[in-house]
Amino acid sequence: MMIRTSTTRRGKCTRAKQQKMIEDDTTDDEGEEEAKEEEGKWAKHYSSLHEILLVGEGDFSFSLCLANAFGSASNIVATSLDNYDVVTKKYSQAKSNIQNLLKMDATVLHGIDATKMKLHTDLSMRTFDRIIFNFPHAGFHGKEDEIHLIRLHRNLVQGFFRNASQMLCPNGEVHVSHKTSAPYDRWNLEELAWTCSLTLTECVNFEKADYPGYDNKRGDGAGCDMPFHLGECSTFKFRINTKKAKMISEAMAENQNVAGVSFFPGSERGKLLAVLQQLYEHPQHVEESAQVTKQQKMIEDDTTDDDDDDEEEQEQEQEEQEEEEGKWVKHYSSLHEILLVGEGDFSFSLCLANAFGSASNIVTTSLDSDDVVTKNYSQAKSNIQNLLKMGATVLHGVDATKMKLHTDLSMRKFDRIIFNFPHAGFHGKEDTINLIGLHRNLVQGFFGNASRMLRPNGEVHVSHKTSAPYDRWHLEELASKCSLSLTECVNFEKADYPGYNNKRGDGAGCDKPFRLGECSTFKFRINTKKAKMISEASASYLCGQSPLDITETQHTIPTGGTLAENQYGRARSFDGTDNLICYPQMSNPSREVEVEEEGRWWKHYFSLHQILLVGEGDFSFSLCLAKAFGSASNIVTTSLDNYELVFSCIL
Q: d(Cα 32, Cα 36) in Å, to the nearest integer?
């Protein structure tokens, strides 16, 4: 019995031990699974727990590679510059890859420009742990070792860095995979990143085998779906240099001047470069200044070389100086963000681009569509193609009086906004009052929009004839109504802009030049004092304190009144009686609104307000405001019905 008892106890003990071991194994497995969930799944440098943005994707194979490794794409936003139709036409596997990404919950966006992605509606409020741009390339516009093409590539990458640096989570990283052999090493990624407060933290070899399924594509030309030779390449990892970013921000805020360095007028980028130079010149601030000392020492050593080496050195120094100071054409620098309005054959824009060696800082617009422009101007197609090759943004159908509302311009700010020889069209003799009124409305509408699209210290430039009757346009007065003050007026010389062709732009002779005669470039800046006064006046008015002595009378008209008598006769009265309350028609000069330098008020509305009216009937309310203001350039008025229906109802 004792033996049996002992055996039974031993068996029970063994079974208990085995049960405990099974429970321990289960606990270990659960713990490993929890640990895996906490650590996430990794594909080389990327984790399933990272919020990842991929920029400039070709056939989306890199994005799909990460998604397959993670088992999900819910943390991935993958983008391409081309639209969906172009992508699927260019790349044989793109459609399948995109479908698989969407099935795995990826966000796929098309038409995303790496140099403007921060402004995109789906990206503007998001931040990421990793932002990836694999093998950025501005297109095959020549040999890779040509200076102009290297500049295009550098402009692309710098624009990407500028946007990406504003879209990072704390401790986030920007990754650029890039060839490291010549001439690609001349892109100087680290230098470009440094100007955007990004510091290189690591540079590791890029191995395609680490990303199963990834296919690198040329992306341009007839062989766009063919792979390109990778050769020696690396993944460059950058992080925000918080100390440097803070120093740059503080220096720019204080508007410091560096000994021997002057800020470029009106250019935030110019200020930034000056601050960067200051940081370089003070080693105690930035460790990278040691590299500058080393470069200076190398230049001194090279003075002992032969004449050919001296010439190469001088050319290199000149290139570096141009990159720091920018290239200038009269009043315009390659470091300015420039908007050109009302272009004809785009020859003025191309003149600036040729002088700068790049058009990446230029947004150029026309009122007419692309088809009309190329039909009206013999050189327009060629000029536009050249601008696009040089990195310009070309927009058509942009109304100067409403450009602030354009989807591609509404979030942009510029250092220079240029409107050369504005003209409302040939609708009579230039000295007639009605045509002068049309011209003035056009210019005032332009000023109203441009004044809201300027960077700090930015300028609005209007080149204009100064002889009669053009002097009766009174540009300075129109600008003043939009809080702009004239800072300088200089002679306009066509010879200063090689290749520029001034065009009539209207009628049968639209491609013919017009006689310039005496003309000047008028330069305007925001009058901050006046803008503040207007803002305060508007605020006080909304609070019930009228800043102007305006007679705010309401007039009642019997319900049987005609449209001529009752301009707002279809509205119900506010008090619910049979009388209709309307605004006066402003036909009596004695009832005209008092005018101050800052603009005109009527009731709750100001001529310097941008006003949208919705659901208008016979548009009489809009007309009432327009008459009170003396202009309708600040008014956008809409109806639900189309024009024919509105007109038939009035009749």
A: 6
What is the rounded CA–CA span in Å between residue 346 and residue 146?
Answer: 25
**pLDDT confidence band for 247 (50 / 70 / 90):** low
Least reliable range by pLDDT among 194-203, 413-422, 568-577: 568-577
**pLDDT at residue 495 above 80?**
yes
Q: Which of 30-44, 52-66, 201-215 has the lowest mean pLDDT?
A: 30-44
CATH topology of domain 334-526: Rossmann fold (3.40.50)
Where helices occur in 58-127 by DSSP H, the ranges are 61-70, 84-90, 94-103
For 527-607, list the strands marked E by DSSP: 555-557, 580-582, 595-596, 599-602, 605-606
What's the CATH fold of domain 42-240?
Rossmann fold (3.40.50)
Residue 179 CA to residue 161 CA, distance in Å, equals: 17
CA distance 93 to 225: 9
**Spans of all domains in the chain:** 42-240, 248-325, 334-526, 541-650
- State the pTM of this model: 0.45
In terms of C-beta density within 10 A (0-12 exposed, 13-18 middle, 19 or more buried), how is residue 89 classed? middle
Distances (CA, A) of 488 to 312, 501, 521, 529: 40, 24, 8, 18
pLDDT for 371 beyond 50: yes
Residues 6+ apart with CB under 8 A from 166: 118
**Amino acid letter for position 130:** R
605-606 and 76-80 strand pairing: unpaired
Report the chain's mean pLDDT, rounded to a whole number: 79
Per CATH, 42-240 and 334-526 having the same topology is answered yes
Please give the residue that has the higher pLDDT: either 275 or 636: 636
